[in-house]
Amino acid sequence: MDTTVSENQKTLSAFIHVSTFLKYFFPFANFFAPLLLWSTNKEKPFVDVHGKQAINFQLSVLLYTLIIGLLCLPFFLLFASDFIALIESIDHHWEESTFNEIENLTGYIILFCTVVTLLFGLFVLELYAVISATMHAAKGEIYKYPLSIPFIKTNPEVPSELNQSKNEHTN
Questions:
Q1: Which segments does the entry list as coiled coil (predicted)?
Q2: How many angstroms separate the CA atoms of 120 and 128, rounded?
Q3: Neighbour tally for 6: CB within 10 Å
C-alpha cells in the first residue's frame, strides 16, 4: 500500500472539509458534498480519514443543535401560553399596560439569549474547526475535530507516514 500523500489527495481532502460550508447555500449539502467526495475516493487512506472526520463532525454538530433545541423546547412551551396572553393584553390595552406585564418578558429574554449564545458558540466552533481541518489537510496532516463523535469509525492506527508535515515530505 502506498502511504505517501500526493498533492491531489491533499487538495481533495481540503475540499472535503470546505464543502461542508455548502450548507449555507443548499440544505444538507454539508452532508452530501463531503459524502460524495469521500465515497468516490475512500480507497486512498488519507482521503478516507479526512472524509470520515468531516462527516463525523457534521453529524456531531447536527446532534448538538438538536440537543440545544430539545433542551429549550420545554421552556418555550412553558412560556408560550404566558407570552400569548401578554401580547394580547398589551395589544388591547397598550396605554394601560403596566411595567409588571413587561417584566414577564424576562423569561423569554433569558431563553432567547441562552439559545443564541449556545448556537453562536457552536457556529464559531464549527467555523474554527473546519478551517483548521482544511489547513491541516492541505499540509498533508491528519486533523481530529474537537467534540466530534465517531459515528463512522476511523482506523485506530493511521500510518505515521500519512501524518506528514510539509518539511518532512514534498511531492
A1: none
A2: 12
A3: 14
The three cell numbers of residue 147 are: 467534540
Residue 152 falls in which region: left (phi positive, over 0), alpha (psi -120 to 50) or beta: beta
Tens of pLDDT, residue by residue over 67-76, are 999 998 887 7
C-alpha cell at 107: 423569561
Round the average pLDDT of the chain to a whole number and report it: 84
Up-side HSE of residue 142: CA atoms within 13 Å toward CB? 18
Strand, helix or coil for residue 165: coil
What does the longest C-alpha to C-alpha distance in the chain come to? 79
CA nearest to 148, candidates 65, 69, 68, 55: 55
Q: Tell me how long the chain is.
A: 171
Burial of 90 (0-12, 13-18, 19+ CB in 10 A): middle
Using an 8 Å Cβ cutoff, are 9 and 44 in contact?
yes
Contact status, residue 161 vs residue 3, Cβ threshold 8 Å: yes
pLDDT for res 43: 94
Q: Which alpha helices (DSSP H) does the chain contain, by range?
A: 7-18, 29-41, 45-92, 99-103, 106-139
Look at residue 70 in the predicted model and tell me its pLDDT. Answer: 93
Contacts of residue 117, defined as CB under 8 A and 6 or more positions apart, other chains included, come to: none
